[in-house]
Every structure is written in C-alpha cells, then in structure tokens.
Amino acid sequence: MKHYDIIIRPLITEKTNIQKELSNQVSFEVDRRANRIEIRRAVEQAFKVRVTSVRTMQMLGKTTQRGRIAGKRRDWKKAIVRLMPGERIEFFEGA
C-alpha cells in the first residue's frame, strides 16, 4: 500500500488539539489493515517528519436507530502518532 492509501484523514477535535500542543501527538484515521510500521512509514513519507511512536486502536461504529430501522456506522482504526521533539505537522494554521 502507498502512504496515501494508509492515511485516510487527520482527526481534528478539541482533544487532538490539546494532545498536539502538550505532547506533540497527532491523530489520524488509517486503513484498518495497516500495522504500526506501515503507519509510521506513511506519516514520515507524507509529512517529512520523524516519528517516535505509534499507538493504534480499533474504533467500533455506533449503532443508530431511526424509528424501527436500526443501522450501524462503519468500524474504523485510529492511530495516535508521537513526533520527535521539534517536529510539527500543521493542518489548519491560520484558519
């Protein structure tokens, strides 16, 4: 897989912004089949940064209900990437 196949999108929330400022961690939604080594290489290639560690977790999709019709959102995988000191990834600076 190529690095643009592994990284689906960055996760921009209040919690991830705090993690980015305090401990230099960035969160991504990644392909469910990717492992930590592939995620590390993909982030280093795509953003030209050095990565210290990668933590991954499987996120279960929520069940939803509209009247009698029940459904389920898709399951996905989250990766929290810790960058080396001095490295930065800027997503929405100045927005």
Summary, kept brief:
The chain has 95 residues and is an alpha+beta fold. It has helices at residues 3-6, 14-23, 36-47, and strands at 7-10, 25-30, 51-59, 63-66, 69-72, 76-83.
Features:
Alpha-Beta Plaits, four-stranded antiparallel sheet, alpha+beta, single chain, 95 residues
What does this structure look like?
The chain has 95 residues and is an alpha+beta fold. It has a single domain, classed as Alpha-Beta Plaits (2-Layer Sandwich). The chain has helices spanning 3-6, 14-23, 36-47; strands at residues 7-10, 25-30, 51-59, 63-66, 69-72, 76-83. It contains three helices and six strands; from the N terminus they run αβαβαββββ. Helices cover 27% and strands 37% of the residues. The strands form two sheets. The protein has a four-stranded antiparallel β-sheet with strand order 1-2-6-3. The chain has a two-stranded antiparallel sheet with strand order 4-5. The mean pLDDT is 93. The longest helix is centred in the middle third of the chain and has 12 residues, at 36-47. A hairpin with a 2-residue loop joins β4 (63-66) and β5. The radius of gyration is 15 Å and the shape is globular.
